[in-house]
UniProtKB/TrEMBL annotation:
Keyword line: Hydrolase, Metal-binding, Zinc
A GO term for molecular function: metal ion binding
UniProt-recorded name of the protein: Putative deacylase
Protein's organism: Bernardetia litoralis (strain ATCC 23117 / DSM 6794 / NBRC 15988 / NCIMB 1366 / Fx l1 / Sio-4)
Taxon lineage: Bacteria, Pseudomonadati, Bacteroidota, Cytophagia, Cytophagales
PANTHER family xref list: BLL3975 PROTEIN, SUCCINYLGLUTAMATE DESUCCINYLASE_ASPARTOACYLASE FAMILY PROTEIN
Amino acid sequence: MKNEFPNYHKDIVIDGVSIAVGEQKQINLNIAKLPSRTSIDTPVFVYRSKNPGKTLLLIAGMHGDEVNGVEIIRQLIAKELVIPKRGTVIAIPLLNIYGFLNFSREVPDGKDINRSFPGSKEGSLASRVAHAFTNEILPHIDLGVDFHTGGGRINNFSQLRCLLAEGDNEEYARAFAPHFIINSKLRDKSLRNVAQQMGKSIMVYEGGESQRLNRAPVKEGMRGAVRLMHYLDMIDKEDIAKMRGAERVTEPIILERTSWMRAKFSGLFRSFVKNGSLIEEGQVIGSLTDPFGELHHDIICKQCCHVVAINHQAVVNQGDAIFHLGKTS
């Protein structure tokens, strides 16, 4: 029988630290220092089975204010759900330590790490973080899930984004089994893009909103990670039962196109539909009003589509994104 993982028994080396098969280690990947000279280290948790298999990356906190992903991986680690029986799991609960400490999406220089890949050792702070990740982590993995939330007050319904035509992405996404799978193009200088260039598959899980711990998307993200590990033969069927609800799988809805509906007027915004719901052409899905009782504008959907995100901001400006809508074809 052909050995599918001929190099599995070689040590993984991250930031000069070797991890042999059968070992579990925490590596503190040094990124930079605060102005006070305090080191900023990104904890990397590596779990290696003695039995060969794929190497899965679970990463969150690339945007420091998106704490749902941090909580997903924190719980997976705390409940020992990331320990594989075959293969390796690399878990990074929080990449952007700077943003996390300052309730910010970006690092202190104002740049977005997820628009800075593959990065540079001599570049901006965001570029240096991306460079360290690209060179120390990505070479070791086969595939990964990058956990995010909506930005600002945007609440994303549980969804997985990937380029379905690329490699085994559709199989992996279906195994994760979120409510929505969105066929999403690659963006320049993103983690997904540089990983694809290296022959790695990265899918993005989106659930909830920034600076909030939203229970439902956290649980759904955990269930998806466990389902994916089972599909990759990293854990056995009985291990799925350790994550309540992971065994219950419904067929994901694949959305080929999405678009934003924007506020036609500035004012007070109210949504009349539930996130994740199917809405009909001509349905009134929300309203815009002024603070003085003089203006009332019904927001009418012009097509049959699914609601994949809603803006929870009560006061909006003209042109603000208020609904993210998706179509299956």
